[in-house]
Specification:
By secondary structure, the chain is α/β, with parallel strands linked by helices. It is built from 19 helices and 26 strands. Helix 5 (about 130-140) crosses helix 19 and helix 13 (about 380-385) packs antiparallel against helix 15. It binds flavin-adenine dinucleotide. The site of flavin-adenine dinucleotide (FAD) has 39 residues, from helix 1, strand 5, strand 13 and helix 19.
Length: about 600
């Protein structure tokens, strides 16, 4: 494998060109380059030996983490807020490994109900049973040892993979076991959940569990390490490839295309320029161009290449080559309530509770269903709220291309909840002075857009999520906040935090009205940073951009294989599911060669 930022040594032509060397791009490139020549173009640097990135215990969100060469932010335009609209920071990774080099490593998978919803949206071949083997292909799961098992770690071996590049395991040592057990007991009481031995089985049904992470134990260093896609699919000796060239510090401006007599578009190469600015070059692609620049940027590459809403492209002076109105629409993210830090009770200050200096985000996670969170009629309440949601606002901002798309998505989400899809995530993070209890929404219905506003490839797009613009998302947000407050008041977890933790954390208590809680949610929520959907895999009539084969509609050889194709937020945390998307995408690309 060649990794370089110098274009002078590169060939002019490759069988495949992969746009973006992030989480999914490196996984796809690894599989394609076994028997083909592949050029990966990555906008960010190679940060291979950066300890802030590699050490999973670099405290998440703190100064060193934010200063890593991979950490980038752009602001979404002012979003719903209280008392006034608020700018929202959209954090993303830009280096080899992309988001997997900066994320919190929480290792969750989609559920059976979630993948059924994706399939029901018009994507045959994407149900749980078809998808699981690809998640397994990417994974080497490390069974918990006796000590970790005594502390509570458990697993169901049959759903895991044991020969894939990505390390998935519980931390050694197991993080803050006493806090984990208290959190589990409390969450069982609040929501009536049962303890799941393994989060990755596909069956949600209301559970709480110890979280595993995308980390592995490095025998030489005798320490846990981050398993980014760079450290899984690119750097290891076992993954070296003759046919793979990775160009860093360069970005793809456009995909070069020609139009066939049947009107279909074929990619013939890409134009590339140094990220820092400079001369534009072009490289030929003789088979396919695979776009893996992530949900924030993949639509921008298509738009600059003339693929998108033709009227919009013309307004920027771009000649449309393919009128595909869904490009950049259906953009979505979950919300997170992160502004919650409960001070420790003095008696709780032991490593078993605080984790010392080995702190990982969200080591216990609860996934209540609609019934668990809203009571016995919860599923009916949420189903009615979803099906009665108005598409008007979302349509007016271009979040969906038509009302049918909005209704179809609301309907498959309602069915997923009816099966047993989680509606909320609640997770607990130990710390030396405080324990954080955060909550995340899972399947939002609010939709926004990603749009370039200049043809300059170095400019960030306008990424407008329109968070909390559909009533049912607000209703769920209020329930998330109520769950956080209940956790602070329910033993045994409440025994670990100070008696007035709720007030100290400024979280509305059980007596607060729904309006007060809603205002607190509006004032404090942050993005879930699981951006998806901006090139959704859906029927074209619903605003889909790619087919179930991940081919951009109307093209013969442009695929998208990253988070932008995921049409619904069915991966509570995206990464392990995205490796499945990349593996399945690579498999389909290679099958197209032999057919
Ligand atoms: C702060 C944070 C915390 C997170 N925590 C978790 C977690 O705990 N668990 C979890 O599962 N998920 C988590 N996620 C989400 C997860 O990391 C992302 O969803 C995932 O990495 C996205 O993968 P991707 O391949 O779609 O895009 P990325 O990994 O973002 O890859 C896209 C790559 O393309 C490059 N690129 C962009 N434009 C161009 C261009 N024009 N030319 C060339 N290259 C380009 C970018 O530099 C980037 O490297 C987190 C994300 C963030 C930001």
């Amino acid at each position: 494998t060649i990794i370089t930022n110098d274009t002078s040594t590169l060939k002019g032509s490759y069988e495949y060109i992969v746009v973006g060397g992030g989480t999914t791009g490196l996984a796809v490139a690894n599989r394609l380059s076994l028997n083909h020549t592949v050029l990966v173009v990555e906008r960010g640097p190679d940060a291979m030996n950066n300890e802030v990135i590699n050490d999973p215990f670099t405290p998440f969100g703190t100064q060193p983490h934010r200063l890593s060469p991979c950490h980038f932010e752009m602001n979404a335009p002012p979003q719903v807020g209280f008392p006034t609209p608020r700018l929202q920071p959209l954090i993303h990774g830009s280096c080899l490994g992309g988001g997997s080099s900066i994320n919190a490593m929480m290792g969750s998978r989609p559920t059976f109900a979630g993948m059924s919803a994706v399939e029901a949206l018009g994507n045959p071949g994407w149900g749980w049973n078809d998808f699981l083997p690809f998640m397994q292909k990417s994974e080497t799961f490390t069974l918990p040892n006796a000590e970790q098992r005594a502390d509570g770690a458990d697993y169901i071996a049959v759903v895991h993979g044991f020969e894939g590049p990505v390390g998935v395991s519980f931390a050694i040592p197991f993080v803050a076991p006493a806090m984990q057990n208290a959190a589990i007991n409390t969450t069982e009481v609040i929501y009536g959940l049962s303890l799941s031995p393994d989060l990755g089985t596909g069956f949600s049904g209301g559970h709480v569990a110890h979280y595993y992470e995308h980390i592995h134990f490095n025998e030489t260093l005798q320490a846990d390490r981050r398993s980014s896609s760079a450290w899984s699919y690119l750097y290891p000796q076992t993954q070296q490839r003759n046919g793979l060239t990775v160009l860093t510090d360069h970005m793809v401006d456009t995909i070069l295309t020609r139009t066939g007599t049947d009107g279909n578009i074929t990619a013939i190469g890409v134009t590339v320029l140094p990220t820092a600015g400079g001369q534009t070059l072009s490289f030929n692609a003789t088979r396919e161009v695979v776009v893996s620049a992530g949900a924030l940027y993949s639509p921008t590459v298509l738009q600059r290449s003339g693929i998108g809403n033709a009227t919009f492209l013309q307004s920027l002076g771009i000649k449309p080559v393919l009128d595909l109105p869904g490009v950049g629409a259906n953009f979505q993210d979950q919300i997170l309530l992160t502004n919650v830090s409960f001070p420790l009770a003095p008696s709780a200050n032991t490593t078993n509770v605080t984790a010392g200096d080995k702190i990982l985000l969200g080591v216990v996670v609860a996934h209540p269903t609609a019934t668990n969170a809203f009571g016995p009629n919860g599923t009916d309440i949420i189903q009615a709220a979803l099906l009665n949601s108005s598409a008007d606002f979302t349509l007016s901002v271009g979040g969906v291309v038509n009302a049918e798309s909005f209704a179809a998505q609301a309907s498959v989400i309602a069915n997923a909840y009816r099966i047993d899809h989680p509606i909320i995530e609640l997770f607990y993070t130990p710390g030396s002075t405080a324990i954080e209890v955060w909550s995340q929404s899972i399947l939002p219905l609010s939709r926004g857009t990603v749009q370039i506003n200049t043809t300059d490839p170095t400019a960030d797009p306008i990424a407008n999520l329109h968070f909390l613009t559909v009533d049912v998302d607000i209703e769920i947000g209020v329930r998330m906040a109520r769950g956080v407050a209940q956790a602070a008041l329910t033993p045994p977890f409440s025994n670990l935090i100070s008696a007035d933790a709720l007030a100290e954390a400024n979280v509305p208590g059980p007596d607060a009205t729904d309006e007060e809680v809603r205002n607190w949610v509006f004032a404090t929520y942050t993005p879930g940073v699981h951006f998806i959907g901006s090139n959704s895999m859906m029927p074209k009539e619903l605003g889909g951009v790619v087919s179930p084969e991940l081919l951009v509609y109307g093209t013969t050889n442009i695929r998208v294989t990253d988070a932008s194709v995921v049409p619904l937020s069915v991966f509570p945390h995206t990464t392990l599911g995205l490796y499945g998307v990349a593996e399945k995408g690579a498999d389909m690309i290679l099958k197209a060669v032999t057919n």
